[in-house]
Amino acid sequence: MTNHLDAWIQTYPDFPKPGILFYDIAPIIEHPIRLKTTCQLLVDAITPWAPEVLVGIDSRGFLFATPVALQMELGVVMVRKKGKLPGAVREASYALEYGEATLAVQTDRQLAGKRVVLIDDLLATGGTLAATESLLHEVGADVVGTVVLIELTGLKGRDVLNAPVKSLQRYDF
Asked: What angle do CA 52, 58, 62 make, to 5 degrees?
């Protein structure tokens, strides 16, 4: 599923470190028509999965999960970076293409037995989304799909995920 968002995505070579090409979604979120169009594309991608709640992944996943959830009349649960959530949390550490990170979800979110869809901006190696899937399974959620704005297909991130993946824009990286 590619919707030619390329004209709205800016790239920065060697960020955050040499050898990494950063795909910036700022041109999408700063322009209301682009943002509305992108959110509608996400709604269209998610609707067939019939989720009960959306999960936005820290931090750019939040930018899209909330307006999409409002349009779909759903709630949003946040998966955040370590140390950003109060109360009891479950954590999972994972490798990024340029380092390591830890994600957390609050254990008292009402996810047990619910159909959830993950939303993030980028699928590269799949580490972030795989860690999120793992966390959600630990709290009893049923991850029925993942949708991302950008997928770097050459890194084969979808191969490490259990749920189906839809991407709005793909790059052969």
From this structure: 55
